[in-house]
Amino acid sequence: MMITDNTRIATNGGFRRALMSGAAIAAFACAPQVAFAQDNETEEAQDGEFGDRVIVVQARRQNESLQEVPVTVTAIGAETLEAYGVDQVADVVGRVPTLNVQVGGSGSGGQLSLRGVGSSNISAAFDSAVAFDFDGVQVSTMRLVQAGFFDTQQIDVLKGPQSLFFGKSASAGVFAIRSADPTSTWEVGGRAQYEFEEKGYTINGYLSGPLSDTLGVRIAAQWNDIDEFLELQPGTPAVNGDFRGTDNLVVRGTLDWEPSDIFDANLKLQYVKNTNDGAIQHSDINCGANGVADSIVLLGGAINIDPGYDCNSTDQLYFLPDAAAALAPGVPTPSPAAGRNGVPFGETEIWFGRLLFNLDLSDTLTLTSTTGFLNMDAVDFDCYSYGGQFPDGAGGFVAGGVGCSDPENELEQYSQEVRIASDFGGAFNFMLGVFYEDRTFVFDTAQQAVNISFLGADPITGFTYDWDKRHVTKTEAFSVFGSVQFDLTDQLELSGGVRYTDETKTQTISVPALHLFLQGPGFVAPGFFSGPIGFADDNISPELTLRYQASDDINIFASFKTGFKSGGIDNSALPSASLSAAALSGDFSALIFDSETTIGGEIGIKTQFDDRNITLNATVYHYVFDDLQVQNFDAVNIQFATLNAGELTSQGVDLEFSWRTPVEGLTLSSNLSYLDASFSDTFITAGGDDLDGRDAARAPSFSGNVAFDWFIPVGDSLEIGLGGNAIFSGDYLTNEDTLNNDLVQDGYVTFDARVSVGDADGRWKVALVGNNINDEIWTNTSGGRPFLPVGGDDLVVTQNRGRQIFVETSFRF
After folding, report:
1. Cα distance between residue 479 and residue 502, in whole Å
2. 752 neighbors 799 (Cβ within 8 angstroms)
3. What pLDDT, on the 0 to 100 scale, is given for residue 260?
């Protein structure tokens, strides 16, 4: 694998190429000598309204067949997730082309992008352009992406804007997780797993069954502990030793109550606790075109620190030191970082609750209510120089990490959605709904952007940080939506709807403390309080779809869609830069970013053949994103810039193929994607570059996977399982900051594999699983390393996890 410095400029005729390439791929996929498929052992209704071999999705907030719903969806079921040990959002990318996931670091704590469109991971002020839907509740924090998942019934990835049914923050798509529900008979299951590369183990289990004829319960828990989550470069001055570890606890309880034929309710409560040895995860340094590690420069060049890292950004060795001695002490209480003496750590606690009920108002009308609650407390401490060391006078080195901070993120979110849906049994049906969300987000952090305490701690307080700042953002969102479905003929359905959204945000900014040496011109005064800064916007998002059912197993659809993601107030403004300028003028408008909108459409066909043993689905799409929300970072002057890009166009072809072969137990599968995503209007970055015509970041032209799963009976009681998954991606740009110091991730291929032996009825199983077995390392995002000298070109690159080899045993009875 090689990373090259280059810049790709999109050429004309991209959409024509998408159409032609889609046709070519379709022909290739159907060629007799090649078979592809996506192994989706999803929720398949064997009986009831959907019949045999039908995957059920909720892409329009109701149960529908995957093959009939006119939405581009990739569904991944529990068996696939368990077979490959997938319990992290980042691991799902191997089954969903054009999905990119970044986890860790400061800011939002993570990033999801689809088809080249996502939201910045360095700002917690942005909602995600790819909505994160957990059991029907939109979760307004990417910190839950860090927590992972387990005991999952199904994951659905909906591509393209989904604002009509999923509302706010679905301008590019939806990542939806559905956890398992109580079973109709008593069942106990468990899994124990050990991973050899990272020295981690996972233990989980569940108990599920009926407490009475009307009440079911499911209790599930998982504990994951990884000793060697990150391996540090030899000689890294860090108290945590040679490795950074992490552990994660998830406990969930579900009650399912059906006291009558006209009413049912489902309650889920979940607790998550994640701890780690620092917020920075799988972020290394690429030393740029000159291949030289740039010094860490402070105080206008008065201090130059040896960075310490070795410029090898693919060896999975990370140079992440503790804080320099002059900066480590003096963090004020009540920050949990106080008393830790500059040693990186992270702690996140999340409480989640969801109450869903359905009430039949009549034989033809059903009322559905979804109430959501989320409470999160997260704090971490790390040093964002990504390097730094000082000679200790004895031939060794001591820690020299600078740019440290202790962001505390607190979120309390309440949401309520009520829908009324009809089932008239005739040509016409409708859905009407209202949605309300109340959210309070607190971002409080002490930061070292100047690192003034190299000259001495604050002589009054002993505070070694430059300042402490606190952003409190209150959000109220209200929307009303409606949709109709009308059968024009027995085969032709017209559906559509509209959502109206009104969203207001109010933020206050305070600076309780400012180092004495910084007080004066160019900085806000200690005790600064902004007063309320307001943002408000409303939007109407229509959608229209025409679906033609050519036969029982062939559906063709064409959709016009729009999307909306609210703007807001930046929370990355520093007392030394944009916040200082705003305070001096009294005008805080520079901190406000506009809403993001989407318009476009797609044409798709969903087909099944050979008694539904063969599935071939294809979608051609074209969407334009206006005022795309982007955040740039000036690595020399340590300043953030929150911007709205003029326009980004995302277009391409998605293909999905699966084949239950005549060979007993053998399934072949594949997902393929062609993507042309580029800035299609003037976009001047904070550095002054115009990115018009440039490819979007994280948008490979071609990507996909090819998989097989084979379950071989041995006698009457045993079953051997074999499986493999090859993932491939073309090259892509990794940032949207600049033209001059860009980074292209070259194309790559990686492999997953598994072998298992177990009871034919699934009562027990022993398996060996390998993910990324060829240990391929690729870059998801890149950006300038903080505290660069003028002309420096070192880049922080966020990467995937390396090879993982699991041995596991599971049981169910």
Report:
1. 6
2. no
3. 97
| 3-class DSSP assignment, residue 623 | strand
Per-residue pLDDT tens over the stretch 215-256? 999 999 999 999 999 999 999 999 988 999 999 999 999 999
The top-level CATH class assigned to 3-188+203-409+441-812 is mainly beta
pLDDT tens figures, 493-515: 999 999 999 999 999 999 999 99
Cis amide prior to 334 (ω within 30 degrees): yes
**Statement: residue 94 has pLDDT above 90:** no
Could you tell me the pLDDT band of residue 50, with boundaries at 50, 70 and 90? Answer: low
Please give the single-letter amino acid code of residue 676.
D
CB 477 within 8 A of CB 503: yes
- Give ∠ CA 764-769-775 in degrees, rounded to 5: 170
Structure tokens at 718: 């045993």
pLDDT of 104 = 59
Is residue 120 within 8 A of residue 111, CB to CB? The reply is yes
Both tokens of 361, joined, read: 């108002």
Helix (H, G, I), strand (E, B) or coil at 730: coil
8 Å CB contact between 412 and 139: no
CA nearest 497: which of 800, 235, 165, 30? 165
The structure tokens listed for 630 are: 């982007």
pLDDT at position 348, please? 92
Rounded Cα gap, residues 293 and 304, in angstroms: 12
CA distance 513 to 527: 6
| DSSP string over 385-426 | TS--EEE-SSSSEEE-B-SEE--EEEEEEEEEEEEEEE--SS
Helix (H, G, I), strand (E, B) or coil at 454: helix
Answer yes or no: is pLDDT of 7 > 50.
Answer: no
Contact 495, 483 (CB under 8 A): yes
Average per-residue pLDDT for the chain: 88
Residue 714's alpha-carbon distances to 41, 303, 379, 550, in angstroms, are 21, 69, 52, 42
The closest of 491, 357, 486, 489 to 422, measured between CA atoms, is 486
Strands 666-679 and 639-660: antiparallel
Consecutive H or E run containing 283: strand 283-286
49-53, 537-541, 594-598, 733-737: which has the minimum mean pLDDT? Answer: 49-53
CB distance 404 to 46 below 8 Å: no
pLDDT number for residue 326:
93
For the cut 50, the answer to whether the pLDDT of residue 9 exceeds it is no
3-class DSSP state of 687: coil
**What is the average per-residue pLDDT within 466-478?**
95
Q: Which amino acid is at 154?
A: Q
Query: What is the Cα 734 distance to its own chain's centre?
Result: 16
Alpha-carbon distance of 293 to 307, in angstroms, equals 7
Q: Return the structure tokens found at 54.
A: 């039908």
Output 639 or 653, whichever has higher pLDDT. 653
pLDDT exceeds cutoff 90 at 630: no
Any idea how long the chain is? 813
**Average pLDDT of span 708-725:** 94
For the stretch 304-318, pLDDT in tens is 999 999 999 999 999
Tell me which residue of 219, 288, 297, 217 sits closest to 258, measured CA to CA.
217
Cα–Cα distance, 641 to 632 (Å, whole number): 5
Tokens of 554: 């062939």
Question: b/e string for 47-70 if b means 16 or more Cβ within 10 A?
Answer: eeebeeebbbbbbbbbebbbbbbb
Cβ–Cβ under 8 Å, residues 723 and 712: no
